[in-house]
Amino acid sequence: MTDDTQARLREIERDILARRPEHAIEPSLDRIRALVTLLGDPQRAYPVIHITGTNGKTSTSRMAETLLRARGLRTGLFTSPHLSSMRERICVDGEPLSPERFVEAYQEIEPYLHLVDSSQPVRLSFFEVFVGMAFAVFADAPVDVAVIEVGMGGTWDNTNVADGAVAVVTPISIDHAQYLGTTVEQIAADKAGIIKPGAVAVLAQQPLGAAEALLRRAGEVGATVAREGLEFGVLSRELAVGGQQLAIRGLLGDYDELFLPLFGAHQAQNAACALAAVEAFAGAAPVQASDGGTDGGPGQQVTALSAHAEQRLGPLDAGLVREAFSQMSSPGRLEIVRRSPLVILDAAHNPAGMAATVTALTEAFSYTDLVAILAVSEDKDVAGILDELEPVTWRLVVTGNSSPRSMDPEKLAEVAGAVFGADRVTAAARLVEAIEIGVALADDAAAERESGPPGSAAVLITGSVVTVGDARLLFAGPAVRPAAGPAVRPAAGAADGP
Length: 498
Hints:
Elements: H1 3-17, H2 30-38, E1 48-52, H3 57-70, E2 75-78, E3 90-92, E4 95-96, H4 99-119, H5 126-140, E5 145-149, E6 166-169, H6 177-180, H7 184-191, E7 200-203, H8 208-221, E8 224-227, E9 233-240, E10 243-249, E11 254-260, H9 265-281, E12 286-290, E13 301-305, H10 309-313, H11 318-326, E14 335-339, E15 342-346, H12 351-364, E16 370-374, H13 382-389, E17 395-398, H14 409-420, E18 425-427, H15 431-449, E19 458-462, H16 465-476
Helix pairs in contact: 1-4, 2-4, 2-5, 3-9, 3-11, 4-5, 7-8, 12-13, 13-14
C-alpha cells in the first residue's frame, strides 16, 4: 500500500466515522433506497442469502459463505460490526477489500452519497454507507451470490432493500429492546421482515413466541419453510481436538464425519443452519404441508421443504462439505490467543449469547479457575450478562473498551459487585491494564487456590465485539505480561455494532 493510498484510506475512514453511528437508529428505508436507486439497484444483480437473528448471525454468515465458495461460486460477504478494520465488513471470495479497492469503492459512490444527503431530511449513516458500498462492490465483482448479514432487526434494517432468495433466522432472544420490542414475539416479528415472497426461510430452533411470529410471516408471504429439528438439524456431536465432530441432517441428505474447528453446541447449530441455507439455495423443492398451532396458527398453510427433495436433487458432495467445514472460522468467537495461561476471546454481548459461551467454555476447555475480563456497552442487559458469567468465574476484572457506548468501569464494578461480591471484582481503567491484571491473577491462581499447577487457570475476555477487537489488536503486538511487566500498545478503536 502506497503512502497516498494509506492517507486516503484514513481520510475516508474519518469521513465515514463522522456520520451518524450505526447504533443511532433512524428507522426508515428511504435513504438507502434513494442511494441504491442512484447506484442502479446493484443489490438486484445477484441472488442473496439474507441472515438475521439475535445471536450467531456472523458465524452463520461466514459458514454459509465458506460452503458456497467451496462449491466454486464467487461470493460476496457483508457482516457487521468489524473486529479490527472497516474493510472486514465487505469480503469478496473470502477476502476483505484491499485498501486500494476500499478507497476506489468509496470514491465511486461518494458523489451519490452527497446527492442523497442533500435530498433527505437526515444524512446517510455510517451503516447505510457501508451497505451501499457492499452492494455496489458485489455487483462490480461480479459475485455469483452474496451473503448479507443484517445490522439489527430485519424489517427496517438497511440491508432489507435486498430480497433474499434464502432468509436465515438464527436463535432469537431479547436484545436491542428499545428498538425491536420487549418480547421475543415482537423482536421476531421485526426480524421476520427479511422473509420475502417466494423465498426459503431457514429457521433455527426458536422460543415458542418467536417461532409463531416467523411462521406467521412465512405463511402470509407464501415462503417455503425449513425448520431446525424438523427438516434439518444436528444428528450427533462429539468433542474433538480443536473443535467438534458432527453429523448433520440437511435438506437434501445426511452428512457425517464433519470436523468443525469451532467450539460449542451453538456453533454446531449455526453450521446446520448454514448448510441448510446453501442446500436451499441449490434448489430444494417445496411441497404444501398443513401445520397448526406453533407452525403458523390454526389452519395456517406453511410450505415445508419436501422429504422427497433428496431423491430429486441429491445431497451436496460429501467430500466438498467436509472440506468446507474443516475451513470454517469465526474470529472472536471462543478464539484462543494465548496458551500459557490460556486466554480466550469471545464476543458474547447479551445474556443468551453469554449462556451459550459459558456452556461451550466449560465443555470444551480444561482449566482449574476462570478469570473473566468484561467490557460491555452501557445499553446492554449488564445484570443478565453477569448472572450467566458468575457461576463459572473465580475472579472478574471489569474495564472499558474503545466504543463511546462502553460502560464506565467504576459503574460496571458496582453492578458486578452486587452479583459477584465486591471481593471478587477488580476495576481497571483501560483494557490493557485489565489484561495485565487478569493474566497475573491466572498465573497466581494455582498458588492462591492450591487448585493446580501454574498456568492451569484461564482468562476469558468478553462482553462486546469491540472488546474482542481491541483485545485482538493488543495480542497481535508485544506479549501481554503480568502487571509488573511493560504495557502493550493501546487498542485502536473499532466501531461497535448496534
